[in-house]
Amino acid sequence: MSFETILYQLHERAALITLNRPDVLNALSSALISELARALDDAERDDEVGAIVVTGNQKAFAAGADISHMKDLDLVDTYLGDFLRDEAERIERCRKPVIAAVAGYALGGGCELAMMCDFIIAARNAKFGQPEIKLGTIPGLGGTQRLTRAVGKAKAMEMCLTGRMMDAEEAERAGLVTRVVDNDALLEDAIATANVIAGYSRVAAYMAKESVNRAFETTLLEGLRFEKRLFHATFATADQKEGMQAFVDKREARFQNR
Ligand code: HXC
Questions:
Q1: What are the tens digits of pLDDT across the range 105-128?
Q2: Exposed, middle or buried, 36 (CB in 10 Å: 0-12/13-18/19+)?
Q3: So what's the pLDDT on residue 1?
Q4: Whole-model pTM over 0.85
Q5: CB-based contacts of 84: which residues, under 8 Å, 6+ apart?
């Protein structure tokens, strides 16, 4: 696997994908988004990988779509080309859990990319924003939808209308990020978290992810039914037997993803 705009590494059972265009604060080019999609395919195919971390560098997770590539596009280019959308959405099609580890700027498409992940761990210096309004446009990769679901209408509306950034503390208070950690602990924390998830039953992890995601797609009653069916289904797995037997035996469970 060779990539030019990202780095791909394995850390035990976690795949680490690092956005790597530091000169332009990891601005999202079509090439970067394509490589990210390809790396996610690799991670999904690799049986050893149980969870994925997407990160940037200390200054930026990603400062948005690459404005110099985007500025001369017209409506037909963006509409027929479905600008960045299809491949960016590869993240949300991942069945393996995906964690965004965000330090520095996560702006525009960068914030949207982080929000496509299953959850966000933020470094103390993280800054989130949807500044598209300052460029005469609006979020185009889910910002108006996912930010609103994450932090509610008031903050989402204010951020999309003013372009102001939210720091890590505010993002944690507002429910956008799961927790804030020191900058130099970010990667270690995210990779350790990914490895914790990778150590559980993969069937249970996929089902838990599917079920939480269903909460955003359906009514409470249908969501509860969906969850109950998946809960029942886990009782057909060897991993449920092993997990519960291990508890009773007071030993670590050895899940086999069966
Ligand atoms: C292209 C970018 C960039 C971007 C930064 N750079 N963001 N290039 N696209 N989104 C480049 C700068 O031009 C500069 O290049 C280098 O990265 C460093 O950036 P500076 O501005 O010098 O750094 P700083 O002063 O620290 O300011 C950081 C910043 C600022 C506040 C993050 O760069 C900024 O406002 N960036 C744009 C953020 C933005 O508007 N994002 C939304 C994009 S629209 P040089 O060559 O000068 O060193 C979007 C829509 C997605 O994302 C929809 C998809 C469908």
A1: 999 999 999 999 999 999 999 999
A2: buried
A3: 67
A4: yes
A5: 28, 30, 33, 65, 109, 140, 141
SS3 (DSSP) at 179? strand
Amino acid residing at 219: T
| Rounded percentage of the chain residues whose pLDDT exceeds 90 | 93
Sheet holding 105-107, edge to edge: 60-62, 105-107, 127-129, 166-167
Strand ordering across the sheet containing 14-19: 6-11, 14-19, 51-55, 98-102, 119-123, 179-181
Mean of pLDDT over the chain: 96
Q: At what angle do helices 238-249 and 202-214 cross, to 10 degrees?
A: 110
> Burial, 157: exposed, middle or buried (Cβ in 10 Å; 0-12, 13-18, 19+)?
middle
CB under 6 Å to ligand 1: residues? 24-25, 27, 63-68, 83-85, 105, 107-109, 131-132, 135, 140-141
Identify the residue with better confidence: 89 or 162. Answer: 162
The minimum-distance atom of ligand 1 relative to the CA of 84 is 55
Pocket test for ligand 1, best of 20, 23, 25, 59 (most atoms within 8 A of CB): 25
235 has which bridge partners? none
